[in-house]
Amino acid sequence: MWIIGPIGFTAPVFLWGLLALPVLYWILRAVPPAPIRRRFPGVALLLGLRDDEVETDRTPWWLLALRMLALAALISAFAGPVLNPSERQAGSGPLLVVMDGTWADARDWPRRIDRVAALLEEAGRDGRPVAVTLLTDLPSGEVPFQAASVWAARLGSLTPKPWQPQSAAWAQGLDGNFETFWLSDGMDRKGRAETLAAFENRGAVTVFEGSRPMLALAPPVYDAGAIALEVLRLASPAGVETDLVARGPDPAGIERDLARQSISFAPDESISLASLDLPPELRNRIARFELVGQRSAAAVSLVDDSLRRRKVALLAGRDDREGLQLLSPTHYLRQALEPVAELIDGNLQDVLLASPDVVIMADVAHLSQEDQDAVLGWLDKGGLLLRFAGPRLAASDVSRDAEDPLLPVRLREGGRSVGGAMSWGEPKTLAAFPAGSPFVGLPVPAEVTVTSQVLAQPDPDLGERSIAALADGTPLVTRKAVGQGQVVLFHVTANADWSNLPLSGLFVQMLERLAVSARVATAGAGDMAGEIWQPVAILDAFGTVQDADRIAGVPGEKLGAALALGLTGPDIPPGLYATGDRRLALNVIGPDTVLEPVIWPDRVAVEGLVVAREQGLKGLLLVLALAALMIDILAALWVSGKLRGSVAVLAVLLMVPHGADAQTPESEEFAIRATANVVLAHVITGDAQVDRVAEAGLKGLGEVLFARTTIEPAAPVGVDLETDELLFFPFLYWPMTADMPLPSSAAYRKLNDYLRSGGMILFDTRDADVAGFGAATPEGRRLQLIAAPLDIPPLEPVPEDHVLTRTFYLLQEFPGRHAGRGIWVEAAPMDAEQIEGMPFRNLNDGVTPVIIGGNDWASAWAMDDRGVPMFPVGRGFTGERQREVAFRFGVNVIMHVLTGNYKSDQVHVPALLERLGQ
Amino acid sequence: MTQAATLRAQAETLGQTLPPLLAQADHLAATVILGDHGRRRAGMGDEFWQYRPATPSDTARMIDWRRSARGDAHFVREREWQAAQSVTLWVDGARSMEFSGSRNRPPKSDRARLLSLALAVLLVRGGERVGLAGADAPPRGGRAHLLRIAAAMAEDDADYGAPDTSGMVAHGRAVFVSDFLGDPAKLETALAAASDRGVTGALVQVLDPAEEEFPFDGRTIFESMGGSLRHETLRASDLRTRYLDRLAERKALLERLARASGWHYLCHHTGQSAQSALLWMFRALEGGR
Predict the structure, then answer these.
(1) For residues A651, A652, A657 and A663, what is the CA-based torsion angle, rounded to 10 degrees?
(2) pLDDT per residue over A743-786, tens digit each?
(3) Are A97 and A181 in contact (CB under 8 A)?
(4) CB-based contact A29:A64 (threshold 8 Å)
(5) I want to staple B236 with a disulfide (CB 3.0 to 4.6 A). Which of A91, A203, A248, B220 is the partner?
(6) What's the gap in Å between the CA of B186 and the closest CA on chain A?
């Protein structure tokens, strides 16, 4: 191979052929183009004429250049040109290909696999044994050196893992000599240097690194009503822009983009802050945040309870001591919950309408029967009722003899006081939480004491309902399930009157365990001790959320540790973990994660990921030669005067690409025609006769309107539902044929828009001669089919006092060519009542969007060009009278369309009454 | 010869449209419609010419008594002398007439024959005698003779035709239809011979538009239709102006020759309507008188 710059030639011998070009030049120059023979009688006059110029017997220079270019391209093509010829030096010995295989690799995983494939191919040519290893998925035992082809077949099954590699120990345990190719993800992390040293002990190390920008999303933080997110970046030039999307289920349960914000970085910044201010309804639905277009687990942040704000309703007994805030029964609850929950105040019926997650009743004893039923219904649907005792509850006889449905246990009268001035004993401390309690594992501070409480009656199921007890075994917190919800009773007050529990940190933790409040900050391992967290969804390295059915639950301590250190691993993959009602997200990027590029020591060779593939240029050059020869044909024809007529047209057609036709002027013209004046329109049905009659009918009606009213319509227009804009027309006449095609969904959308925006359609099945009430004709069935997807309100036969009967003429019948009675319009509202003394009801606002009938009005209206009716109506004078009434109906309809319910206005009643009386 | 029948039919249709045109020329109308041409002098004929006072040499039979009875003098009623004209047509049938510059234009020979035959139809309808020069068709009248003329229009193997003066009737009329691209000397001789016999008439030059425009480019070898003449050029477009000059020169020559011998000259293109040419020919034959 012979290489010039980026191009090599596999058969350079052929390039000697280029020497023939000057010879060709000389030959081509000498030969004039071949003559044409023409029969021409005028030759007698030509005899003796001589050519003025003689140099035209030479080929023009540009034609020569074209031909030589073609030949040069041909010669070079056969010399086998290759772009980016690869000159590789063979390696030897075993080769270990190591990939980090982390989430940071996922963004350009196919390229990495391509690079590994190229390395394997090379190794295969050299016959080296190869092993391919992901540092996140280490082989157990020996490094499996095998033939390159075996690994090439397995490459497709390698996937990156969403956790950090723990490779130092494994690398130090290797033995044998091999060369190492390390495809790094470019992130610095612990153990990197040790691993590199271990590899270098075994042989040469070459590092391959990509240069694509790395973006990562830190977990969202709830901050003063807004969600704050940090977007981190690594090794990217300025000007990276991306979109941050919050995704979650919509009310129908379909996952959608709930919010979107664009992110840009200042040139030198590696952190960009985003802040999303969302309404609580939306915020509580967010399931995860994503950076659009970043295919990596780092660009996804799952959302757990920390963003959820539960709606908590606070109800207290009577606030009879106004102004004493610290003594208010709900003061400490308010303090504890304000930062982490949406608080709702109000009376019970009102707050239940807001469907709170939790209702807290502090020292509320009696509930009315109505309230109790409402609360029970709400509990059945999964609510949590949290009650606190207090003097009122203790003094009442609620749940004394029989268990109150809204209390978990029966209570003894009066309660007890311990450790006070007037009582025996010491204030009681709390016992450790029993197994099965939601509070299990919480540390019990010694300083929490209880001086007064209400006492539970010793019932058989008291033991299992008790979830916290005092040191002497008296239940302090009891709980029972009601429907899908539960009732929890703290046997002490919610303020510091009876115990100092509300003043302690334990109180907040207990509320949190009861899922009343959400996690405020990252819970420590200790907080989560004793719980098993089951993964609900896990993230793979590409950032897609997957089911976690087959993954075992994780002990709380371990999860807590993983959260604290931001460490994930094969046994604790990133994802969403749940226990009870609580959810915790373990994300790839923790709140403290910092992205740092790895700095390789100078002794290590670092290469890029890009593989410059060899690319043969032979085909390209052959095409070039062919194209030049094609142009040469046309040029030669032109030079010798043979390019004329059809040949020239053909050549031009071949060379000029066809442009698309612009059709805006047409639609503009249509719009102007439709809006310059009042234009009546009919729907084009596709039946030429029906369309013709419809147009003639509207024309006739237009003439009548012009003559009798102030409406002066222009010539009617046929409207194609699929292509034309409907909104220009106040009125559409739609004659129905039995075989009218169903409009497309786009046309239906247009029709519904039209109806909603105040248009009116007069459907005419033209079958009133054969159809009566209930009798179905083909047209009627077609109308039902066509009108089914339309947004049509409930209909009723035209009532006697409908505004259509008096918009211009006073009418009671609406005949067309037929005099059927079944005319349907939008139904009057149910509450429309006739007022005594008024001739008609005060009916609905607006225009009926549809009139449906079958009287074939267009035929009755139809006029030819001389204004003569096109079709006979009825017989003799009665027929002409019927036609006149048909015209009056048309006038009334158009008046109704254009003036709405104007004539329904009661102001006109006296005048109308007077006329009706005549 | 095979298209003799269709050629005649075409000629008939073309001739049919002419009488209305002729009717506008009132001095021709009577003669064309009646047939034989009045010679505008007293002589043998059917038409009244004039009354003249009787001279002693007139016999008593010759006196028109009805006119004489109105006065004292005697009058003789004279009639106009009427005689039919003999027209000899010569249609160039040489190879050069087969040229057509475009696929949708007929060759020049078609147009030449059509014009000649249409003229013959008109003349015969007007009562003249029409003959074809060079063929066995001496001037005669009658519609059957048209068939003979149509059949006798022969093709010639020569490259360029020369006018044939044989069979020309003295003091008659002659029409030469050709492209006149051949040797003008022969035409000159023919015209001289015709003048010698007192024959006047018309030269109709039929040319193809391509011959007027010379729309050729590039390296070309021009050949005459028979192949006897040849001219090669490397850039045909350069020749255009000089060719057109020569063509104009040739037309001027024809014009001059025609005028010198009292003939009429028309240059007609196959791209134009044949009717105007026919009308011109008809008037040329009339106007010579």
Answers:
(1) -140
(2) 888 888 888 888 877 788 999 888 877 766 555 788 888 888 88
(3) yes
(4) yes
(5) B220
(6) 15
> According to the model, what pLDDT value does residue A891 have?
92
* pTM summary value: 0.44
> Which residues does A830 contact at the CB level (< 8 Å), separation at least 6?
none
Does a structural domain hold residue A629?
Answer: no
Q: What is the mean pLDDT of residues A372-383?
A: 87
Phi, psi angle pair for A89, to nearest 5°: -105, 135
**The residue count for chain A:** 918
Q: Is residue A382 part of a domain?
A: yes
Q: For residue B188, with 0-12 CB atoms within 10 Å meaning exposed, 13-18 middle and 19 or more buried, which class applies?
A: middle
A343-354 burial, b if ≥16 CB within 10 A, otherwise e?
A: bbeeebeebbee
pLDDT of residue A664: 54
Torsion angle in degrees (nearest 10) through CA of A785, A786, A788, A791: -170
Rg (CA), chain A: 44
Shortest Cα–Cα distance, B262 to chain A (Å): 26
Query: Which domains, from first to last, does chain B contain?
Result: 4-25+84-287 (3.40.50), 38-83 (no CATH)
Same domain (yes/no): A670, A758: yes
Is the confidence at residue A826, as pLDDT, over 90? no
Minimal CA–CA distance to B128: which of B24, B78, B201? B201
Averaged pLDDT for residues A671-683: 87
Q: A718 vs A149, A589, A674, A746, A747, CA distance in Å?
A: 70, 63, 10, 19, 15
| A571 Cα distance to chain centroid | 32
pLDDT of residue B267: 92
The mean pLDDT value for A648-671 works out to: 61
Burial of residue A7, with CB atoms counted within 10 A of its CB: 0-12 exposed, 13-18 middle, 19 or more buried? middle
* DSSP of A790-854: S----EEEPPTT-GGGTSSS--S---SSS-----EEEPPPTT--PPTT-SS----SS--SEEEE-
| Contact (CB<8Å) A42/B181 | yes
Same domain assignment for residues A366 and A449: yes
Provide the number of structural domains found in chain A. Answer: 5
Would the pLDDT of A31 be above 70?
no
A464, A451 Cβ separation under 8 angstroms: no
Convert the pLDDT of each residue in A311-331 to its tens digit.
888 887 655 455 566 677 788
Identify the domain containing residue A564 by its residue range.
526-584
Residue B203 · residue B258 · CB < 8 Å: yes
Question: Which tokens sit at A548?
Answer: 């976690």
Q: Are residues A182 and A226 in the same domain?
A: no
Rounded CA-CA distance A584/A104 in Å is: 23
A54 → chain B, closest CA residue: B234
A406 and A335 in one domain?
A: yes
| Residues on chain B bordering chain A, Cβ-to-Cβ distance under 8 angstroms | 96-97, 99, 160, 179, 181-182, 210-211, 214, 216-225, 229-239, 242-243, 246-247, 250
Residue B133 clears pLDDT 90, i.e. is over it: no
Given the DSSP bridges, would you call strands A179-184 and A205-209 parallel, antiparallel or unpaired? parallel
Residues of A with CB under 8 A from a CB of B: 32-47, 49, 51-54, 56-57, 639-642
**Domain-embedded: residue A790:** yes
How far apart, in whole angstroms, are the C-alpha atoms of residue A138 and residue A666? 69
Give the integer Cα–Cα distance in Å for A221 and A9.
61
Using CA coordinates, name the residue in chain A closest to B240: A46
**Short-list B201, B182, B57, CA closest to B131:** B201
- In terms of Cβ atoms closer than 10 Å to its own Cβ (0-12, 13-18, 19+), residue A871 is middle
Task: Work out the pLDDT band at A238, boundaries 50, 70, 90.
Answer: low
Coil, strand or helix: which one is A222?
strand
**For A214-230, what is each residue's pLDDT tens digit?**
788 888 887 766 788 88
Q: If pLDDT is split at 50, 70 and 90, which confidence band does A30 have?
A: low
